[in-house]
# Entry
Amino acid sequence: MADEALFLLLHNEMVSGVYKSAEQGEVENGRCITKLENMGFRVGQGLIERFTRDTARFKDELDIMKFICKDFWTTVFKKQIDNLRTNHQGIYVLQDNKFRLLTQMSAGKQYLEHASKYLAFTCGLIRGGLSNLGIKSIVTAEVSSMPACKFQVMIQKL
Amino acid sequence: MSRQANRGTESKKMSSELFTLTYGALVTQLCKDYENDEDVNKQLDRILFSNFLPRGYNIGVRLIEDFLARSNVGRCHDFRETADVIAKVAFKMYLGITPSITNWSPAGDEFSLILENNPLVDFVELPDNHSSLIYSNLLCGVLRGALEMVQMAVEAKFVQDTLKGDGVTEIRMRFIRRIEDNLPAGEE
# Structure
C-alpha cells in the first residue's frame, strides 16, 4: 500500500529528471513532454486493466468517461473530477479544481508556464486508460489558474 | 453495502500499483535513454561526484520531512533504533511491508534489511540483456537521502534481489559517520 506522497515525489522527480537531461530549445521541450506522456500512457494502460477486471461492461462512451472521472480519478488522485462537459460529438472536457499534482506549487501566475510539464504524465495516463478500453483519443491539458486545470479529450473515430 | 467495502480495499491496492507501474515506466525510459546498465543504476541512486541526476536521493530528501511530520517518532539515539524505525515504521507507512533486520556487524554499524516481497517488482521480470540492472536502486537512494537529512551518512546497497533469482531481497546498510552541521561557506 504505497503512500500517495511517494507517487507525488516520484512524479516530480521524473519531470525534473527528464528536463535536466535535455537541452534548451523548443524541440527539446516537446520531446520531454512526449517522453512523460508516453510514460503515463504505459501506466494508464496497465492500471485500467487491473482496475476494470471485475467491473461490468460499459454501456457507451459517456459511461466510460464517467468512470474515468469518478472511479479512476478517485483511485489515482483521491478525489473526483469536479466537472465534466461534452459536446456529445466526441469532445470531453474534464475539469479538476484542485489538481493533486499542482497543489504543492504556489497558487498564482508564477509557475503557470511550467505547469504543462506536470500535466503531461496525467494526459498520458488518461490516454492509456482509454486506449485499453478500446477508445483512441488525443488528450491535452491546460491550466488557467493553479491549481485548477482542464483536460480535453478528443475521441478519434476510426 | 458490501460493494462499497470492496471498493475501499481495492482503491488502496490500486494506489500502490500506480506507484509500481510508474516506477516501471521510469526504469524502462531510463533503459532506453542510457545504453548500459551501470549508468541506469547510477541514475537511480546517485553518486556524489558525478553530474548524473540524483533521483532516489532527491526523493529521500523530501520524503523524510513527510515521514517525520506524520509519524511522530522522536530522535533516534543510535543506529539500532534507526534501523528499527526504518523497518517497522517507514517501510510500513510507505510500502506496506515490514522488512526484518538481521546480520548486525560486530561493531553495530552495519545491518541487513530483508524484504520478503518487494512491492516495486510486482509485475516485473528482468530480461537477459539487463541482468546487471539493479531495478530497485531507487530505494537505496531514498534511504541515503532521507538519512542524510537527519545527519547520518550511510551507504545502502542491494546484496540479494528476487529479480535476479535470489529468494529474498536484501539491502545492506552501513553507517559511515554522523554529519556535523556545517556553517555555509563564508559565514563565521
User: Anything to note?
Assistant: The radius of gyration of chain A is 15 Å. The helical segments of chain A are 4-20, 26-51, 61-77, 112-132.
